[in-house]
Amino acid sequence: MKSNIEKVYSKLPKTELATQKVELGVADDIAKMQSTLQKSMSDADDKLKEFKDAKAQFEKAKTEALKVKKSSDKIRNLITKSLVKANSLGDKTDKAANDLGVKSSDIKGYNKMIELISDLTNMAADIRDFDFDLGR
To answer: Percentage of residues in the chain with pLDDT exceeding 90?
Structure first.
């Protein structure tokens, strides 16, 4: 004689266990996929934070670069005034040396002044032409 449990088991459809196994397998896959998607979202969130930080740093550097560029006009004007005075002194020195029948280069400090004028002229051009390349 069959026990009550055996009678219940015998009345259950045989395919029900297979269906439950399929459902459990899909549920496991869904759980794994959720975990994978959560990890991807965390990675994406981290990358977005990096982008925001980098953009903030870039904006700060850009603001500073624009300040420096704006202040360069003042420096260029001072350089121009210095070069005008130095060239005028060089012309005056050349005239005086010519009047005395000596070479300007024989006058103490003249060659160094000419060298400094040349260097400062080049630096002024570098300042004028400096490209900050601010992403424009």
So the answer is: 56
| For residue 22, pLDDT beyond 80 | no
Angle between helices 15-100 and 110-129 (to 10 degrees): 150
Find all residues with CB under 8 Å of 82, minimum gap 6, and list them: 120
DSSP per-residue string spanning 74-123: HHHHHHHHHHHHHHHHHHHHHHHHHHHT--GGGSTTHHHHHHHHHHHHHH
Residues present in the chain in total: 136
The average confidence (pLDDT) of the chain is 86
Tokens describing residue 97: 């040396």
pTM of the model: 0.55
Asked if residue 82 lies in contact with residue 55, where contact means CB atoms within 8 angstroms, the answer is no
Question: 135: which residues sit within 8 A by CB, 6+ positions away?
Answer: 58, 62
pLDDT value at 129 more than 80:
yes
Please name the residues in contact with 113: beta carbons below 8 A apart, sequence gap of 6 or more. 86, 89, 90
